[in-house]
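Example record

The entry below shows one chain as it appears in the dataset: sequence first, then C-alpha coordinates.
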Amino acid sequence: MFTKVVAVLLFVAVLSQEAEEEPFKLPSLKGNAFFADPFANFEGIGSIWGLSSSSKGDGSKFDGRWAIEGNSANLKDLGLVAKDKAKHHAISAKMNKKVDFTELHDSQKQFVVQYEVKYQDTMECGGSYLKLAAEVDEEFSSDTFNDKTLYSIMFGPDKCGLESRIHFIVNYKNPVTGAVEEKHAKASSDFKEIFGDNKSHLLTLVVDFDGSFEIFVDQNSVNKGSMLTDMTPAINPPSEIDDPSDSKPSDWDDKEKIPDPMATKPEDWDEDAPKFIEDEEATMPDNWLEDELEQVPDPDAVKPEDWDDEEDGEWEAPIVENPKCEAGNCGPWTRPQKPNPEYKGSWAPPLIDNPNYSGVWSPKKIANPDYYEDKTPFASLMPITAVGIEMWTMTKDIMFDNIILTDSKSVADEWAGESWNKKALIEKLAAPGDSPIDQFLVFAGENPWIWVLLAAAVILPVVLYFYCSGGSPAPADDGAEAKKTDKVTPDDEEKEDEGEEEEKEASGEQKEEEEDMPELEETEKEAEEEAAEEEEAEEEEAAEEEVAEEKEEAPVKRRTRKAD
Protein backbone atom coordinates (compact mmCIF):
# COMPACT_ATOMS: atom_id res chain seq x y z
CA MET A 1 0.00 0.00 0.00
CA PHE A 2 2.83 2.38 0.89
CA THR A 3 4.45 1.66 -2.45
CA LYS A 4 1.31 2.66 -4.33
CA VAL A 5 0.90 5.86 -2.28
CA VAL A 6 4.47 6.83 -2.98
CA ALA A 7 3.95 6.05 -6.65
CA VAL A 8 0.97 8.40 -6.74
CA LEU A 9 3.03 11.18 -5.17
CA LEU A 10 5.81 10.73 -7.67
CA PHE A 11 3.38 10.53 -10.59
CA VAL A 12 1.80 13.83 -9.53
CA ALA A 13 5.24 15.36 -9.21
CA VAL A 14 6.14 14.20 -12.72
CA LEU A 15 2.93 15.63 -14.14
CA SER A 16 3.59 18.93 -12.33
CA GLN A 17 7.08 19.03 -13.73
CA GLU A 18 5.75 18.37 -17.25
CA ALA A 19 3.13 21.06 -16.75
CA GLU A 20 5.90 23.58 -16.09
CA GLU A 21 7.23 22.74 -19.58
CA GLU A 22 10.85 22.60 -18.53
CA PRO A 23 12.98 23.26 -21.62
CA PHE A 24 14.77 20.31 -23.16
CA LYS A 25 18.43 20.03 -22.13
CA LEU A 26 21.18 18.08 -23.81
CA PRO A 27 23.18 15.69 -21.60
CA SER A 28 26.39 17.20 -20.27
CA LEU A 29 29.62 15.21 -20.35
CA LYS A 30 31.11 14.70 -16.88
CA GLY A 31 34.43 12.97 -17.43
CA ASN A 32 36.59 11.68 -20.25
CA ALA A 33 35.06 10.52 -23.53
CA PHE A 34 36.68 9.43 -26.75
CA PHE A 35 33.48 10.28 -28.62
CA ALA A 36 30.12 11.69 -27.53
CA ASP A 37 27.30 12.87 -29.78
CA PRO A 38 23.85 13.83 -28.43
CA PHE A 39 22.82 15.09 -31.89
CA ALA A 40 22.46 18.67 -30.73
CA ASN A 41 21.23 20.08 -34.05
CA PHE A 42 20.20 19.24 -37.59
CA GLU A 43 23.70 19.90 -38.97
CA GLY A 44 25.30 16.65 -37.75
CA ILE A 45 25.20 14.94 -41.15
CA GLY A 46 27.98 16.53 -43.14
CA SER A 47 29.83 18.03 -40.17
CA ILE A 48 30.24 15.11 -37.74
CA TRP A 49 28.79 12.19 -39.68
CA GLY A 50 29.69 11.41 -43.27
CA LEU A 51 27.77 9.33 -45.79
CA SER A 52 29.42 6.49 -47.66
CA SER A 53 29.63 6.63 -51.44
CA SER A 54 31.19 3.18 -51.56
CA SER A 55 29.46 -0.11 -52.37
CA LYS A 56 29.24 -3.55 -50.84
CA GLY A 57 31.36 -6.48 -51.95
CA ASP A 58 28.50 -7.73 -54.13
CA GLY A 59 28.21 -4.36 -55.86
CA SER A 60 25.12 -3.14 -53.94
CA LYS A 61 25.04 0.59 -53.30
CA PHE A 62 24.55 2.16 -49.90
CA ASP A 63 21.41 3.98 -51.04
CA GLY A 64 19.58 4.06 -47.72
CA ARG A 65 18.75 7.62 -46.67
CA TRP A 66 19.77 9.18 -43.32
CA ALA A 67 18.16 12.12 -41.51
CA ILE A 68 18.28 13.88 -38.15
CA GLU A 69 14.78 14.09 -36.66
CA GLY A 70 13.00 14.69 -33.35
CA ASN A 71 12.02 11.87 -31.03
CA SER A 72 8.27 11.41 -30.55
CA ALA A 73 8.81 11.64 -26.76
CA ASN A 74 10.18 15.16 -27.24
CA LEU A 75 10.53 16.66 -30.70
CA LYS A 76 13.41 18.82 -29.48
CA ASP A 77 15.37 15.66 -28.66
CA LEU A 78 17.06 14.87 -31.97
CA GLY A 79 18.46 11.58 -33.21
CA LEU A 80 20.01 9.96 -36.29
CA VAL A 81 17.40 8.04 -38.31
CA ALA A 82 17.87 5.31 -40.95
CA LYS A 83 14.89 6.15 -43.14
CA ASP A 84 14.38 3.34 -45.64
CA LYS A 85 13.44 -0.32 -45.58
CA ALA A 86 15.04 -2.93 -47.85
CA LYS A 87 18.05 -0.66 -48.27
CA HIS A 88 21.74 -0.75 -47.36
CA HIS A 89 22.76 2.08 -45.01
CA ALA A 90 26.28 3.30 -44.19
CA ILE A 91 27.34 6.38 -42.21
CA SER A 92 30.32 7.07 -39.95
CA ALA A 93 32.05 9.66 -37.80
CA LYS A 94 35.80 10.01 -37.35
CA MET A 95 36.99 10.36 -33.75
CA ASN A 96 39.34 13.16 -32.69
CA LYS A 97 40.87 10.89 -30.05
CA LYS A 98 41.49 7.21 -30.72
CA VAL A 99 40.89 4.41 -28.22
CA ASP A 100 44.23 2.80 -27.29
CA PHE A 101 43.51 -0.40 -25.37
CA THR A 102 47.11 -0.84 -24.29
CA GLU A 103 46.99 2.51 -22.51
CA LEU A 104 43.62 1.67 -20.94
CA HIS A 105 44.97 -1.67 -19.72
CA ASP A 106 48.08 -0.10 -18.22
CA SER A 107 45.88 2.48 -16.46
CA GLN A 108 43.48 -0.30 -15.33
CA LYS A 109 40.52 1.44 -16.92
CA GLN A 110 37.41 0.25 -18.71
CA PHE A 111 36.15 0.66 -22.23
CA VAL A 112 32.46 1.54 -22.49
CA VAL A 113 30.32 2.04 -25.59
CA GLN A 114 26.72 3.12 -25.09
CA TYR A 115 23.92 4.35 -27.32
CA GLU A 116 20.15 4.47 -27.69
CA VAL A 117 18.11 2.77 -30.40
CA LYS A 118 14.39 3.15 -31.06
CA TYR A 119 12.40 1.03 -33.51
CA GLN A 120 9.62 3.40 -34.46
CA ASP A 121 8.15 0.55 -36.53
CA THR A 122 8.25 -3.05 -35.30
CA MET A 123 11.57 -4.62 -36.27
CA GLU A 124 11.15 -7.34 -38.90
CA CYS A 125 14.63 -8.16 -40.14
CA GLY A 126 17.91 -6.29 -40.02
CA GLY A 127 20.65 -4.92 -37.80
CA SER A 128 21.08 -1.80 -35.67
CA TYR A 129 24.61 -2.20 -34.35
CA LEU A 130 27.71 0.00 -34.22
CA LYS A 131 30.96 -0.88 -35.93
CA LEU A 132 33.96 0.69 -34.21
CA ALA A 133 36.50 0.99 -37.00
CA ALA A 134 40.02 -0.25 -36.31
CA GLU A 135 43.15 1.80 -36.91
CA VAL A 136 44.86 0.80 -40.16
CA ASP A 137 47.69 2.17 -42.25
CA GLU A 138 45.38 4.32 -44.34
CA GLU A 139 43.57 7.24 -42.71
CA PHE A 140 39.89 6.55 -42.10
CA SER A 141 37.43 8.10 -44.57
CA SER A 142 33.61 8.08 -44.31
CA ASP A 143 33.45 8.17 -48.08
CA THR A 144 35.00 4.68 -48.40
CA PHE A 145 33.37 3.14 -45.30
CA ASN A 146 31.63 -0.15 -46.21
CA ASP A 147 30.96 -3.71 -45.08
CA LYS A 148 34.61 -4.68 -45.66
CA THR A 149 35.99 -1.93 -43.42
CA LEU A 150 38.00 -3.57 -40.63
CA TYR A 151 36.42 -3.02 -37.24
CA SER A 152 37.84 -3.63 -33.79
CA ILE A 153 34.49 -4.14 -32.01
CA MET A 154 30.96 -4.62 -33.29
CA PHE A 155 28.18 -4.14 -30.75
CA GLY A 156 24.40 -3.97 -30.93
CA PRO A 157 21.14 -5.83 -31.67
CA ASP A 158 20.27 -7.85 -34.76
CA LYS A 159 17.02 -9.63 -35.62
CA CYS A 160 15.46 -11.61 -38.44
CA GLY A 161 12.28 -13.61 -37.98
CA LEU A 162 12.31 -15.49 -34.68
CA GLU A 163 16.10 -15.26 -34.29
CA SER A 164 17.61 -12.29 -32.48
CA ARG A 165 20.81 -11.51 -30.63
CA ILE A 166 22.94 -8.69 -29.30
CA HIS A 167 26.30 -8.86 -31.00
CA PHE A 168 29.57 -8.40 -29.19
CA ILE A 169 32.24 -9.33 -31.70
CA VAL A 170 35.93 -8.49 -31.61
CA ASN A 171 38.32 -8.76 -34.53
CA TYR A 172 41.35 -10.33 -32.89
CA LYS A 173 44.76 -10.34 -34.53
CA ASN A 174 46.78 -13.54 -34.08
CA PRO A 175 50.12 -12.45 -32.63
CA VAL A 176 51.90 -15.38 -34.32
CA THR A 177 50.45 -15.43 -37.82
CA GLY A 178 49.03 -11.88 -38.01
CA ALA A 179 45.70 -13.25 -39.25
CA VAL A 180 42.55 -11.47 -38.04
CA GLU A 181 39.65 -13.62 -36.84
CA GLU A 182 36.20 -12.72 -35.48
CA LYS A 183 35.54 -13.79 -31.87
CA HIS A 184 31.86 -13.88 -30.87
CA ALA A 185 30.62 -13.53 -27.31
CA LYS A 186 28.08 -16.03 -25.98
CA ALA A 187 24.41 -15.28 -26.52
CA SER A 188 22.53 -12.69 -24.43
CA SER A 189 19.08 -13.16 -22.92
CA ASP A 190 15.99 -11.15 -21.81
CA PHE A 191 16.04 -8.39 -24.42
CA LYS A 192 13.68 -9.43 -27.24
CA GLU A 193 10.88 -7.03 -26.25
CA ILE A 194 12.97 -4.08 -27.46
CA PHE A 195 12.14 -4.85 -31.10
CA GLY A 196 8.39 -4.26 -30.89
CA ASP A 197 7.44 -1.78 -28.15
CA ASN A 198 8.32 1.44 -30.06
CA LYS A 199 10.34 2.82 -27.12
CA SER A 200 13.88 4.14 -26.79
CA HIS A 201 16.26 1.51 -25.43
CA LEU A 202 19.70 1.95 -23.92
CA LEU A 203 22.45 -0.46 -24.99
CA THR A 204 25.69 -0.58 -23.01
CA LEU A 205 28.85 -2.67 -23.38
CA VAL A 206 31.44 -2.57 -20.60
CA VAL A 207 34.81 -4.28 -21.10
CA ASP A 208 37.21 -4.21 -18.15
CA PHE A 209 40.99 -4.19 -18.38
CA ASP A 210 41.09 -7.77 -17.02
CA GLY A 211 39.11 -9.02 -20.05
CA SER A 212 35.74 -9.42 -18.33
CA PHE A 213 32.71 -7.95 -20.10
CA GLU A 214 29.06 -7.20 -19.38
CA ILE A 215 26.19 -6.16 -21.62
CA PHE A 216 23.27 -4.06 -20.37
CA VAL A 217 19.89 -3.31 -21.95
CA ASP A 218 18.04 -0.43 -20.30
CA GLN A 219 20.63 -0.65 -17.47
CA ASN A 220 19.73 -4.29 -16.78
CA SER A 221 22.44 -6.91 -17.24
CA VAL A 222 21.67 -9.41 -20.02
CA ASN A 223 25.09 -11.03 -20.49
CA LYS A 224 28.44 -11.23 -18.75
CA GLY A 225 31.58 -13.27 -19.17
CA SER A 226 35.28 -13.19 -19.96
CA MET A 227 37.09 -12.76 -23.23
CA LEU A 228 39.34 -15.62 -22.14
CA THR A 229 36.57 -18.19 -21.63
CA ASP A 230 33.34 -16.98 -23.29
CA MET A 231 34.28 -16.19 -26.89
CA THR A 232 33.90 -18.46 -29.92
CA PRO A 233 36.37 -19.35 -31.32
CA ALA A 234 38.47 -18.97 -28.19
CA ILE A 235 40.91 -16.08 -27.95
CA ASN A 236 43.74 -18.50 -27.16
CA PRO A 237 44.07 -21.54 -29.47
CA PRO A 238 44.65 -25.07 -28.06
CA SER A 239 48.24 -26.02 -27.36
CA GLU A 240 47.76 -29.29 -29.31
CA ILE A 241 45.91 -30.08 -32.51
CA ASP A 242 45.00 -33.21 -34.48
CA ASP A 243 47.79 -34.46 -36.71
CA PRO A 244 46.49 -33.72 -40.24
CA SER A 245 48.68 -36.50 -41.66
CA ASP A 246 47.32 -39.23 -39.39
CA SER A 247 44.63 -41.63 -40.70
CA LYS A 248 42.62 -44.56 -39.31
CA PRO A 249 44.29 -48.00 -39.85
CA SER A 250 42.50 -50.29 -42.26
CA ASP A 251 42.04 -53.00 -39.61
CA TRP A 252 40.57 -50.63 -37.06
CA ASP A 253 37.14 -51.92 -35.99
CA ASP A 254 35.06 -49.14 -34.40
CA LYS A 255 31.77 -51.11 -34.22
CA GLU A 256 30.92 -51.62 -30.57
CA LYS A 257 28.04 -54.08 -31.31
CA ILE A 258 27.67 -56.68 -34.08
CA PRO A 259 24.86 -59.13 -35.10
CA ASP A 260 25.12 -62.51 -33.33
CA PRO A 261 26.53 -64.89 -35.98
CA MET A 262 25.17 -67.92 -34.09
CA ALA A 263 21.53 -66.78 -34.03
CA THR A 264 18.93 -68.37 -36.37
CA LYS A 265 15.38 -67.39 -37.29
CA PRO A 266 12.71 -69.41 -35.37
CA GLU A 267 10.68 -71.82 -37.47
CA ASP A 268 7.34 -70.18 -36.56
CA TRP A 269 8.53 -66.71 -37.51
CA ASP A 270 6.15 -65.48 -40.24
CA GLU A 271 7.69 -62.49 -41.98
CA ASP A 272 4.73 -62.25 -44.39
CA ALA A 273 2.05 -61.70 -41.74
CA PRO A 274 0.41 -58.27 -42.20
CA LYS A 275 0.74 -55.65 -39.51
CA PHE A 276 -3.05 -54.94 -39.47
CA ILE A 277 -6.08 -57.16 -40.16
CA GLU A 278 -9.87 -56.64 -40.40
CA ASP A 279 -11.81 -56.69 -37.16
CA GLU A 280 -14.15 -59.68 -37.72
CA GLU A 281 -16.22 -58.79 -34.68
CA ALA A 282 -17.13 -55.31 -35.96
CA THR A 283 -20.69 -54.76 -37.25
CA MET A 284 -22.18 -52.02 -39.38
CA PRO A 285 -23.77 -49.23 -37.26
CA ASP A 286 -27.55 -48.93 -37.34
CA ASN A 287 -27.43 -45.38 -38.68
CA TRP A 288 -25.15 -46.24 -41.59
CA LEU A 289 -26.68 -45.29 -44.97
CA GLU A 290 -25.06 -47.40 -47.65
CA ASP A 291 -27.25 -46.10 -50.46
CA GLU A 292 -26.71 -42.43 -49.70
CA LEU A 293 -24.15 -40.45 -51.69
CA GLU A 294 -21.74 -38.29 -49.74
CA GLN A 295 -22.34 -35.41 -52.21
CA VAL A 296 -25.69 -34.53 -53.80
CA PRO A 297 -27.14 -31.70 -55.95
CA ASP A 298 -28.14 -28.70 -53.88
CA PRO A 299 -31.91 -29.11 -53.32
CA ASP A 300 -32.31 -25.38 -52.62
CA ALA A 301 -30.60 -24.25 -55.83
CA VAL A 302 -32.76 -22.46 -58.41
CA LYS A 303 -32.05 -22.12 -62.10
CA PRO A 304 -31.19 -18.49 -62.89
CA GLU A 305 -33.81 -16.60 -64.86
CA ASP A 306 -31.33 -15.54 -67.50
CA TRP A 307 -30.08 -19.09 -68.08
CA ASP A 308 -30.33 -20.07 -71.75
CA ASP A 309 -30.19 -23.86 -72.29
CA GLU A 310 -29.26 -23.41 -75.95
CA GLU A 311 -26.35 -21.11 -75.20
CA ASP A 312 -25.39 -22.19 -71.69
CA GLY A 313 -26.22 -25.86 -71.91
CA GLU A 314 -28.45 -27.88 -69.65
CA TRP A 315 -28.54 -26.36 -66.17
CA GLU A 316 -27.49 -28.53 -63.26
CA ALA A 317 -27.72 -27.74 -59.59
CA PRO A 318 -24.33 -27.30 -57.83
CA ILE A 319 -23.04 -30.27 -55.84
CA VAL A 320 -23.01 -29.91 -52.03
CA GLU A 321 -22.23 -32.15 -49.07
CA ASN A 322 -25.10 -34.49 -48.25
CA PRO A 323 -26.60 -33.23 -44.94
CA LYS A 324 -27.49 -36.83 -44.06
CA CYS A 325 -23.82 -37.77 -44.10
CA GLU A 326 -22.42 -35.20 -41.66
CA ALA A 327 -21.31 -38.04 -39.34
CA GLY A 328 -19.44 -39.78 -42.17
CA ASN A 329 -21.99 -42.60 -42.20
CA CYS A 330 -22.73 -42.91 -45.93
CA GLY A 331 -21.50 -45.14 -48.73
CA PRO A 332 -20.22 -48.71 -48.71
CA TRP A 333 -19.32 -49.94 -45.21
CA THR A 334 -16.09 -51.88 -44.53
CA ARG A 335 -14.81 -53.39 -41.34
CA PRO A 336 -12.18 -51.34 -39.49
CA GLN A 337 -8.57 -52.52 -39.17
CA LYS A 338 -6.98 -53.74 -35.95
CA PRO A 339 -3.38 -54.73 -35.04
CA ASN A 340 -2.45 -58.27 -36.07
CA PRO A 341 -1.45 -60.26 -32.96
CA GLU A 342 0.58 -62.61 -35.21
CA TYR A 343 2.66 -59.84 -36.76
CA LYS A 344 6.43 -60.07 -36.10
CA GLY A 345 7.97 -58.27 -39.06
CA SER A 346 11.31 -59.00 -40.67
CA TRP A 347 13.62 -61.14 -38.57
CA ALA A 348 17.10 -59.91 -37.66
CA PRO A 349 19.70 -61.50 -35.40
CA PRO A 350 20.19 -59.83 -32.00
CA LEU A 351 23.27 -57.64 -31.36
CA ILE A 352 26.16 -58.75 -29.17
CA ASP A 353 29.42 -57.13 -28.03
CA ASN A 354 32.04 -57.02 -30.77
CA PRO A 355 35.03 -59.08 -29.65
CA ASN A 356 37.25 -57.17 -32.13
CA TYR A 357 36.10 -53.69 -31.04
CA SER A 358 39.06 -51.28 -31.17
CA GLY A 359 37.33 -48.21 -29.69
CA VAL A 360 36.61 -44.77 -31.12
CA TRP A 361 39.42 -43.69 -33.38
CA SER A 362 40.83 -40.20 -33.33
CA PRO A 363 44.00 -38.81 -34.91
CA LYS A 364 46.98 -38.34 -32.70
CA LYS A 365 47.80 -34.93 -31.23
CA ILE A 366 50.75 -32.79 -32.16
CA ALA A 367 51.97 -29.43 -30.89
CA ASN A 368 50.06 -26.51 -32.38
CA PRO A 369 52.53 -24.59 -34.54
CA ASP A 370 50.33 -21.46 -34.24
CA TYR A 371 49.87 -21.69 -30.49
CA TYR A 372 50.08 -18.60 -28.31
CA GLU A 373 48.70 -17.59 -24.92
CA ASP A 374 47.44 -14.09 -24.51
CA LYS A 375 46.61 -13.47 -20.86
CA THR A 376 45.64 -9.83 -21.51
CA PRO A 377 43.31 -9.87 -24.55
CA PHE A 378 41.91 -6.45 -23.59
CA ALA A 379 45.29 -4.85 -24.22
CA SER A 380 45.56 -6.69 -27.55
CA LEU A 381 42.38 -5.22 -29.05
CA MET A 382 42.98 -3.08 -32.10
CA PRO A 383 42.78 0.70 -31.52
CA ILE A 384 39.53 2.43 -32.55
CA THR A 385 39.51 5.56 -34.73
CA ALA A 386 35.90 5.93 -35.91
CA VAL A 387 32.28 5.08 -35.13
CA GLY A 388 30.23 3.62 -37.98
CA ILE A 389 26.77 2.23 -38.69
CA GLU A 390 26.66 -0.18 -41.62
CA MET A 391 23.53 -2.29 -41.91
CA TRP A 392 20.73 -3.67 -44.05
CA THR A 393 17.19 -3.56 -42.73
CA MET A 394 13.60 -4.35 -43.65
CA THR A 395 12.36 -1.78 -41.11
CA LYS A 396 12.25 1.97 -41.72
CA ASP A 397 12.85 4.86 -39.31
CA ILE A 398 15.33 3.27 -36.89
CA MET A 399 16.59 6.03 -34.58
CA PHE A 400 20.04 6.21 -32.96
CA ASP A 401 20.84 8.72 -30.23
CA ASN A 402 23.29 9.76 -27.49
CA ILE A 403 26.29 7.72 -28.66
CA ILE A 404 29.22 7.77 -26.25
CA LEU A 405 32.58 5.99 -26.01
CA THR A 406 34.30 6.47 -22.66
CA ASP A 407 36.68 4.83 -20.18
CA SER A 408 34.25 4.80 -17.23
CA LYS A 409 30.80 3.30 -16.76
CA SER A 410 29.97 6.03 -14.22
CA VAL A 411 30.48 8.64 -16.96
CA ALA A 412 28.14 6.69 -19.24
CA ASP A 413 25.58 6.33 -16.42
CA GLU A 414 25.56 10.09 -15.75
CA TRP A 415 25.21 10.72 -19.49
CA ALA A 416 22.20 8.38 -19.56
CA GLY A 417 20.79 9.95 -16.39
CA GLU A 418 20.47 13.28 -18.20
CA SER A 419 19.07 11.76 -21.39
CA TRP A 420 17.65 8.24 -21.62
CA ASN A 421 16.34 7.99 -18.04
CA LYS A 422 14.07 11.02 -18.51
CA LYS A 423 13.02 9.94 -21.98
CA ALA A 424 12.20 6.39 -20.86
CA LEU A 425 9.98 7.67 -18.03
CA ILE A 426 8.04 9.93 -20.40
CA GLU A 427 7.53 7.08 -22.88
CA LYS A 428 6.50 4.71 -20.08
CA LEU A 429 3.85 7.06 -18.71
CA ALA A 430 2.57 7.91 -22.19
CA ALA A 431 2.19 4.28 -23.26
CA PRO A 432 -1.41 3.01 -23.75
CA GLY A 433 -2.79 0.16 -21.66
CA ASP A 434 -2.24 0.13 -17.91
CA SER A 435 -2.83 3.21 -15.78
CA PRO A 436 0.09 5.60 -15.31
CA ILE A 437 0.48 4.47 -11.71
CA ASP A 438 0.70 0.78 -12.71
CA GLN A 439 3.15 1.67 -15.45
CA PHE A 440 5.26 3.61 -12.99
CA LEU A 441 5.32 0.70 -10.53
CA VAL A 442 6.51 -1.61 -13.29
CA PHE A 443 9.08 0.96 -14.38
CA ALA A 444 10.28 1.44 -10.79
CA GLY A 445 10.56 -2.33 -10.37
CA GLU A 446 12.78 -2.47 -13.43
CA ASN A 447 14.72 0.66 -12.40
CA PRO A 448 15.19 0.69 -8.59
CA TRP A 449 17.30 3.86 -8.77
CA ILE A 450 14.11 5.90 -9.10
CA TRP A 451 13.20 5.15 -5.45
CA VAL A 452 16.36 7.02 -4.40
CA LEU A 453 15.11 10.10 -6.21
CA LEU A 454 11.70 9.67 -4.62
CA ALA A 455 13.16 9.33 -1.13
CA ALA A 456 15.10 12.53 -1.62
CA ALA A 457 11.98 14.31 -2.88
CA VAL A 458 9.91 13.20 0.15
CA ILE A 459 12.44 13.32 3.00
CA LEU A 460 14.29 16.52 2.07
CA PRO A 461 11.27 18.86 2.51
CA VAL A 462 10.57 17.32 5.95
CA VAL A 463 14.16 17.84 7.06
CA LEU A 464 14.13 21.43 5.81
CA TYR A 465 10.88 22.12 7.65
CA PHE A 466 12.24 21.01 11.02
CA TYR A 467 15.53 22.75 10.35
CA CYS A 468 13.87 26.08 9.54
CA SER A 469 11.40 25.89 12.48
CA GLY A 470 14.28 25.40 14.93
CA GLY A 471 12.80 22.31 16.50
CA SER A 472 11.53 24.29 19.61
CA PRO A 473 8.65 22.78 21.66
CA ALA A 474 5.15 24.23 21.42
CA PRO A 475 4.20 26.81 24.16
CA ALA A 476 2.04 25.67 27.07
CA ASP A 477 -1.71 26.20 26.79
CA ASP A 478 -2.65 28.79 29.51
CA GLY A 479 -6.32 28.43 28.61
CA ALA A 480 -6.39 24.80 29.69
CA GLU A 481 -4.82 25.68 33.06
CA ALA A 482 -7.35 28.49 33.62
CA LYS A 483 -10.25 26.13 33.02
CA LYS A 484 -8.97 23.86 35.80
CA THR A 485 -8.22 26.61 38.42
CA ASP A 486 -10.67 29.46 37.50
CA LYS A 487 -7.60 31.63 37.21
CA VAL A 488 -8.18 34.96 35.50
CA THR A 489 -6.23 35.06 32.31
CA PRO A 490 -5.35 38.00 30.07
CA ASP A 491 -7.92 36.68 27.66
CA ASP A 492 -10.63 36.91 30.38
CA GLU A 493 -9.70 40.52 31.15
CA GLU A 494 -9.82 41.32 27.49
CA LYS A 495 -13.26 39.68 27.25
CA GLU A 496 -14.58 41.80 30.23
CA ASP A 497 -13.27 44.98 28.70
CA GLU A 498 -14.85 43.98 25.43
CA GLY A 499 -18.20 43.38 27.28
CA GLU A 500 -18.20 46.83 28.93
CA GLU A 501 -17.40 48.47 25.65
CA GLU A 502 -20.26 46.58 24.01
CA GLU A 503 -22.75 47.78 26.74
CA LYS A 504 -21.61 51.36 26.36
CA GLU A 505 -21.99 51.10 22.63
CA ALA A 506 -25.50 49.63 23.05
CA SER A 507 -26.63 52.41 25.44
CA GLY A 508 -25.19 55.03 23.16
CA GLU A 509 -27.06 53.56 20.26
CA GLN A 510 -30.28 53.59 22.31
CA LYS A 511 -29.85 57.26 23.16
CA GLU A 512 -29.21 58.04 19.55
CA GLU A 513 -32.39 56.19 18.61
CA GLU A 514 -34.41 58.16 21.22
CA GLU A 515 -33.04 61.46 19.98
CA ASP A 516 -33.75 60.50 16.42
CA MET A 517 -37.43 59.64 17.19
CA PRO A 518 -39.00 62.46 19.41
CA GLU A 519 -42.34 62.54 17.60
CA LEU A 520 -42.94 58.86 18.19
CA GLU A 521 -42.38 59.28 21.96
CA GLU A 522 -44.89 62.19 22.22
CA THR A 523 -47.56 60.20 20.34
CA GLU A 524 -47.02 57.25 22.68
CA LYS A 525 -47.36 59.52 25.79
CA GLU A 526 -50.63 61.00 24.55
CA ALA A 527 -52.04 57.55 23.91
CA GLU A 528 -51.03 56.45 27.39
CA GLU A 529 -52.67 59.49 29.01
CA GLU A 530 -55.94 58.90 27.14
CA ALA A 531 -55.95 55.25 28.19
CA ALA A 532 -55.32 56.28 31.83
CA GLU A 533 -58.18 58.77 31.80
CA GLU A 534 -60.59 56.16 30.38
CA GLU A 535 -59.48 53.67 33.02
CA GLU A 536 -60.07 56.23 35.85
CA ALA A 537 -63.53 57.00 34.50
CA GLU A 538 -64.44 53.32 34.51
CA GLU A 539 -63.15 52.93 38.07
CA GLU A 540 -65.27 55.90 39.29
CA GLU A 541 -68.45 54.45 37.74
CA ALA A 542 -67.71 51.09 39.33
CA ALA A 543 -67.20 52.77 42.76
CA GLU A 544 -70.49 54.64 42.56
CA GLU A 545 -72.38 51.41 41.76
CA GLU A 546 -70.72 49.66 44.72
CA VAL A 547 -71.68 52.46 47.15
CA ALA A 548 -75.29 52.22 46.04
CA GLU A 549 -75.38 48.49 46.70
CA GLU A 550 -73.86 48.93 50.19
CA LYS A 551 -76.61 51.33 51.19
CA GLU A 552 -79.24 48.76 50.34
CA GLU A 553 -77.57 45.95 52.26
CA ALA A 554 -76.20 47.94 55.22
CA PRO A 555 -78.33 46.35 58.12
CA VAL A 556 -77.53 42.85 57.11
CA LYS A 557 -73.87 43.56 56.94
CA ARG A 558 -73.80 45.11 60.42
CA ARG A 559 -75.55 42.12 62.00
CA THR A 560 -73.16 39.86 60.43
CA ARG A 561 -70.26 41.79 61.85
CA LYS A 562 -71.68 41.66 65.39
CA ALA A 563 -72.22 37.99 65.22
CA ASP A 564 -68.61 37.67 64.16
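Notes for this example: Confidence is low (pLDDT under 50) at residues 480-485, 511-521, 553-564. The first helix runs from residue 2 to 19.
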